[in-house]
Design goal:
homodimer; 400 residues; alpha/beta; Aspartate Aminotransferase, domain 1; 7-stranded mixed β-sheet; 3-stranded antiparallel β-sheet; 12 strands
Amino acid sequence: MPKISTRGTVMPASPIRKLVPLSDSAKARGLKVYHLNIGQPDIATPKVGLNAIRYLDRKILEYSPSDGFCSYRKKLTAYYSKFKMNINADDIIITTGGSEAVLFAFMACLDPGDEIIVPEPAYANYMAFAISAGALIRGVASTIENGFALPPIEKFEALINEKTKGILICNPNNPTGYLYSRTEMNKIRDLVKKYDLYLFSDEVYREFIYTSSPYISALHLVGIEENVVLIDSVSKRYSECGIRVGMLITKNKELRKTVMKFCQARLSPPLFGQIIAEATLEVPEEYMRDVYDEYLERRNFTVDTLNRIPGVYSPIPMGAFYTIARLPVDDTDKFCAWCLSDFEYEGQTIFIAPGSGFYADPTAGKNAVRIAYVLKKEELQNAMLVLEKALEEYNKIMNG
Amino acid sequence: MPKISTRGTVMPASPIRKLVPLSDSAKARGLKVYHLNIGQPDIATPKVGLNAIRYLDRKILEYSPSDGFCSYRKKLTAYYSKFKMNINADDIIITTGGSEAVLFAFMACLDPGDEIIVPEPAYANYMAFAISAGALIRGVASTIENGFALPPIEKFEALINEKTKGILICNPNNPTGYLYSRTEMNKIRDLVKKYDLYLFSDEVYREFIYTSSPYISALHLVGIEENVVLIDSVSKRYSECGIRVGMLITKNKELRKTVMKFCQARLSPPLFGQIIAEATLEVPEEYMRDVYDEYLERRNFTVDTLNRIPGVYSPIPMGAFYTIARLPVDDTDKFCAWCLSDFEYEGQTIFIAPGSGFYADPTAGKNAVRIAYVLKKEELQNAMLVLEKALEEYNKIMNG
């Protein structure tokens, strides 16, 4: 049997999806499993998007342009201008989800052995895409005590060497929910400028900010326009995860030209995804407001409840729909698996993501979990109760 | 401005799509452009596929499983069994088009510096995906004089070294239309077995075989089951290029496990694509027969007409919907560009793909073009006339 590639061998299994078999067997045993493990909203997709394909009159399902439909890219500029982002249609390349935008950004900017610096905990799949490109992620730990604020910029600077090509941030942050302040963004800008680095900025959660602090996009930063690569996606904001539509946005022409070569190789982004996403730009403001209010209530409830469970602590996330909570257990990898394989409370259990998956160092994050508050409040209520009972029983076993 | 990656710099622009700006300006000048450059069928997509989304009752457009819907993978086994391919649902991973299947196969099997051997001319994007994985394509030239039959297997063997990880074939072949015989496939099998190589086999055109010779899939070959990686796609067979649904199929469990890590990182293949592709499995036989007859007629007409143009030669392709033709010009890169930028015949011109894009060596294929017979016969008729007139005028200019 021929050898698997080293790349394929070191590629991590998704820390979120790797417990799926345990969850499947829990369900097979008849348990109700609360999915707090994945950013899959239970919110209805806007009707204006769904209707676009219902009444579609297309006879041939052709390739679309490699950079996406021009009509869609043009309309997106109006969307971004609402956030004071000055983006032209030509700056936008439509990708197959935000995932492909990250992959192509890394492919076009990073060579094997190159390094990027990422505040941790971080979205696990950045690591997977870095490995695909042969690049290395150097983590700088943010801490729960500081609510996962940007670590001191000196810690970033200390890691910079001749292999360093960029900094990656997610803002508002998945998994911490942190929103970078203007002061923090300016520090990042100065460092990016000083060393002429790329700034990869994943901003897919900009609609979900629960604080009066302003949203500072990487594209708001003056003087590093050619350095910024913005990652975006419609998945979370319109509950359209399945259609696989994202964007790679950059003012850097040469980079766009390079990214386009990767886009041409894969021919085109999904046709129906683009049709739906384009129509969804007409979503009523009321929809967005309702979704926002819903998440705000869920956040408040989740964080408040977590902090009432003995030994549990969660900072108050300012955005996105996740929080990183510290649990009173030694090893959340074991605890999360145990919840699915050996525990139940009144026929229910919980599926939460172990913290270790959000760090390049596999020994980090052992007492943390990521909780996605993507369920209705009544379900969250039950899930929090199940978590409390699980912690009680787990610690009884561990200490007994 | 930070540096573009070396990978991104050496990545070739698509030889087929790179002339698009010239074609766009020809259209802007009011010319009718016949697109013989791209495998975009003009055939109507089966209604059974289109209807599947029209009457869909889904409220949330969720992620699908990373390996695709189980129901779809199960039904596909019946499709493959019609071709005597013994494939289980677990052997199949649904990808975002055949493109992603090639990329993930390379990512999981090949490390930077590894080599694969490919008979040339070959589908241009294999090169792009190889570069993405840091791997090298070693071409073995097939020749127009032999109708692009498999080159002597000794030529493959001569290239094998410690870096060689696999052989890649496309069968029936894009761009040549060649169908590998049982004898040829057995030779490939023996070589793959002798050196324990991967055999990547792209078989997306199996429905389009215009000869009584049997279709020998790589998965029909006995004794190399763990070595074969089959690439498939619904794009061409159902005129569903835009929905981005393909398959990576292998009996090699360890490889599947590795590929799944790449699949999990990009979360899921397109939702609507899968719904349409699954429904399309119920396509009436009559549809497939009509499409087949249509392409057969187009092939016969195209090849016959090409061979009547002075100085032009095309072998008779046995499958797919392309042919490689030799033209009486020095440099088809220049000729194809000239057709779009400087030529017209009665308000019309042609867009054909220069041969050089189908070889790793950029100096090869200079007197060849790939012609996709994906237009209605009346349009092909006009296009062939335009080609004849273009050759006349081009050679008058060149010789004058």
